[in-house]
Design goal:
alpha/beta, binds flavin-adenine dinucleotide, binds FE2/S2 (inorganic) cluster, seven-stranded antiparallel β-sheet
Length: 269
């Protein structure tokens, strides 16, 4: 049981900070936690939300009393709406860190981070981790490309260090374009990249296809409906070139080369 230590409205999203006194202080970017509010979680007329919901952690800071975890969330249904109503000092039941996160860039390539909407969340801690490694090695920091629906969603871009390139569906921030257009331009300019992407399935599929055509290595942080988060329920299986895998234990970060498609039935919103 963690304790909520901060809540902040960030345009269309909520940034929730929880202090985890018992979990490891070093989750790896791309890993996730199963979250449930301690109170008002199921048991109502329709027993929803009931099951915990999966969230990538966006940032983690070791503190004296434990690790402070930031989660960026978008309220899309009963679970996320309850979590978006959390207040400081409330309990947050969490299980994690779970799954396999991002792996180092392929030798001789520079990392290129591509986020769509709430998919920006796991890229935040990955940018921090890459920047720490870069400052040790003297390499240039990773480029960040972000696409959002509207200016309210695009406020999440302010959480990133440096100057991420931002486009929106309605043109209210940056140009009116899809983030995959930015990716194509960036790969035309400098093809020697390892792409890290997180976002809705159609965006991930466009990233996968683009990188496959150009022989660019890519890692995709994917979603599927998760009931347990640790391999027990088989609710999260996705097809790969080598058969079905449980996304919660073999992912959520998958090598794009392992996938025929990133369009997973039942995932995304
Ligand atoms: C590994 C992982 C990491 C995630 N990280 C984040 C994050 O950092 N921030 C965030 O806001 N959300 C994240 N999600 C998605 C989040 O888990 C769903 O938004 C949440 O489960 C929705 O629950 P709900 O009760 O609010 O809505 P529901 O009523 O359960 O669903 C509302 C809508 O969202 C779709 N949906 C529900 N659950 C999922 C799911 N697990 N994956 C994809 N679509 C779903 C449904 O089809 C429906 O259209 C992540 C999901 C996974 C699997
Ligand atoms: S969520 Fe239960 S097996 Fe993956």
């Amino acid at each position: 049981m963690a304790v909520v230590s901060g809540v902040e409205r960030l345009g269309a999203y909520d940034l929730i900070t929880a202090l985890d006194r018992f979990g490891p202080a070093d989750p790896r970017p791309g890993q996730f936690y199963m979250l449930a509010a301690a109170g008002e979680w199921g048991g109502g007329a329709d027993e929803r939300p009931y099951l915990p919901r999966a969230f990538s952690y966006a940032r983690a800071r070791a503190e004296d009393e434990g690790v402070a975890l930031d989660f960026l969330l978008e309220a899309v249904g009963p679970g996320t709406e309850r979590l978006s109503r959390l207040a400081p000092d409330e309990g947050l039941a969490l299980v994690g860190p779970l799954g396999v996160g991002f792996r180092a860039p392929a030798r001789g390539t520079r990392p290129l981070l591509v986020g769509g909407g709430i998919g920006a969340a796991p890229l935040l801690c990955w940018q921090e981790t890459l920047a720490a490694a870069d400052s040790a090695s003297g390499d240039a920091s990773a480029a960040v490309l972000l696409g959002f629906r509207t200016a309210a969603h695009a406020q999440a871009a302010a959480l990133f260090a440096g100057q991420p390139e931002v486009v929106t569906d309605d043109g209210s921030v940056g140009r009116q374009a899809l983030v995959t257009e930015l990716l194509a331009t960036e790969l035309d300019r400098a093809p020697n990249a390892t792409v890290y992407a997180c976002g809705p399935p159609p965006m991930l599929e466009a990233v996968r296809a683009l990188c496959s055509e150009r022989d660019v290595p890519a890692q995709l942080a994917m979603e599927s409906g998760m009931a347990c988060g640790f391999g027990a329920c088989f609710g999260c299986v996705v097809p790969t070139r080598n058969g079905y895998v449980r996304l919660c234990v073999d992912g959520p970060v998958m090598d794009a080369a392992e996938l025929e498609t990133a369009l997973v039935a039942g995932a995304g919103h």
